[in-house]
Amino acid sequence: MEVLKRLLLFTNSDFGQANVVLATAHELGIACEDVEIRIASFQDLRSGVDDASRFIPIIRAAPPTREVDAGLAEWLSQGSTIYVNLGTHHKSNPTEAHQMSKAFRKVLEHADTLHSAGKPLQILWKLGRALVTDELQAYIKSDRVRLTDWLVAEPKSVLGSQSIVCSVSHGGANSFYEALCSGIPQALLPAWTDCYDFANRVELLGIGLWANKEAKP
């Protein structure tokens, strides 16, 4: 018995399509046998859009960081910042956190050799402190790396603070569009389904990098 079952999309006969398999269903893990999902449709849904710029991207409005977290806003203003947020659903394990900590330490060390006289590069990382190894302890003590398991300010607010120089994310739609609309270069670490699509998009559009094509995230 197959673990993953096909999800079938039925469209009207005038469209000339039936039993169209959605590849994402395999990745999402549809485990029930013989289940068909039928999606209703009507002509207006298929009509073209003359000016898509009126509708997309859809980004929720958010207040400036200084209005919801003055302390964070003050810290962000101290220097150029890498913003790391791998989304709500992904939970980093100790091995992932250790490897990322090593990478960030190397980034900070390299930045220090390039800008020894200017404002130091800093990192805001949405991650629980318990997962971080000794790799970043010196930077945490000097307050150049801030770790938090939750941010009061919306991601859009943080990205719009004028301090973020790079957004590191899992490549979710919201993360992609929020960084795009803020004009922030992106480094994506995709872990599932559509995140890989956005990782390809950032490279195709020249606005970022798919940071690691051999592991997820």
UniProtKB/TrEMBL annotation:
<dbReference type="GO" id="GO:0008194">
    <property type="term" value="F:UDP-glycosyltransferase activity"/>
</dbReference>
<keyword id="KW-0808">Transferase</keyword>
<dbReference type="InterPro" id="IPR002213">
    <property type="entry name" value="UDP_glucos_trans"/>
</dbReference>
<keyword id="KW-0328">Glycosyltransferase</keyword>
<dbReference type="Pfam" id="PF00201">
    <property type="entry name" value="UDPGT"/>
</dbReference>
<dbReference type="InterPro" id="IPR050271">
    <property type="entry name" value="UDP-glycosyltransferase"/>
</dbReference>
<protein>
    <submittedName>
        <fullName>Uncharacterized protein</fullName>
    </submittedName>
</protein>
